[in-house]
Design goal:
By secondary structure, this protein is mostly beta strands. Helix content is 0%, strand content 51%. It has strands spanning 3-7, 10-13, 18-25, 34-39, 46-54, 57-62, 70-75, 80-85, 94-100, 116-117, 121-126. Strand 4 and strand 5 (46-54) form a beta hairpin.
Length: 127
């Protein structure tokens, strides 16, 4: 059984940084797609970034709203997904969720591709 556990959320000022972590317990689909999503209060789920590994090559894709500010990465040895968030804005305030796919080998921002989800971690960016 796959269990995703996020951490690293918190409150920061505009322009600050945070790094989210997601430990993927029981997730053995090495190289398959993993992703970060977020949901702001009263809004729909929004894709943030996704990645997969093809051999030794790491591939990532980002939502336009976070390109150049956020970086997704994965430590295969620690079975942990990360999201480095820099230059944070109030619009980045949301609950951030880690997601993992058991079927999709390629990075995708489609939430329907992911079967396992974490419980979420709150990120709040003050103006």
């Amino acid at each position: 059984q796959v269990q995703l556990v996020e951490s690293g959320g918190g409150s920061v000022q505009t322009g600050g940084s945070l790094r989210l972590s997601c430990v993927a317990n029981g997730y053995t689909y090495s190289g398959y797609a993993m992703a970060w999503f977020r949901q702001a209060q009263g809004k729909e789920l929004e894709a943030v970034a996704s990645c997969h590994r093809d051999g030794i090559t790491f591939h990532a894709i980002y939502a336009d709203s976070v390109k150049g500010r956020f970086t997704i990465s994965r430590d295969m040895a620690k079975n942990t997904l990360y999201l480095q968030m820099n230059s944070l804005k109030p619009d980045d305030t949301a609950i951030y969720y880690c997601a993992a796919s058991q079927y999709t080998r390629y990075r995708t921002l489609d939430p329907q591709a992911y079967q396992s989800w974490g419980q979420g971690t709150q990120v709040t960016v003050a103006a």
